[in-house]
Amino acid sequence: MVVSGPSGVGKGTLIERVCRRFPDLRKSVSANTRPPRPDEVEGVDYCFVTKEKFREMIAADEFYEWADVHGELKGTPKPEIRKALDGGIDTVLEVDYQGALTIKEKEPAAVLVFIAPPSWQALEGRLRGRDTESDDVIQCRLETALTELQSIEKYDYVIVNEDADRAGEQLAAVLTAERCRRERNASRALVERLLAQARAATERAQRNGNI
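Given the sequence above, the corresponding structure tokens read:
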């Protein structure tokens, strides 16, 4: 499940809620060359690496996707995600819209979820309320947000994050729905097995004169 949306829309908070609700869900940790913010934890929010190390990872083809985001490099590591998927472990990723579309090309079964703000004013207020970036950076993020919003039609689901509790429930519902859809083939096999058992039981009852 790939989650995208403008910076400041609350993607990380919603992902944390879903991960708490589904302990078997694995959260992918992106690599990032920017300095960590005061509330960010290495290996939990991001893997913070130098630009030199990041370029080495690019050369080794260790990313599903990567991008230069406002002068810093950010990417989705491939090895750990591939290992989890091969082991049948559902994984949630937080990436921008370009990265999401790139991942979809490489992993067609990926489910894309866009988190949208309730209004443009609310998004700008959240960005300025963080008080961690200059006006120039905030303006750049808003310009990027406009481009991201124009890509909504390419996503499988759109969730408006006006209330974190409600939006978290909706994101959890997406995961549940997709797990059920993925398991439809297994469900069909179960139904066929039950029908065969029912027919056999009916035939035995008929032979024994119980029907």
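Helices lie at 11-21, 51-59, 79-86, 97-106, 120-130, 135-149, 164-182, 184-207. Try to locate this feature in the token string yourself.
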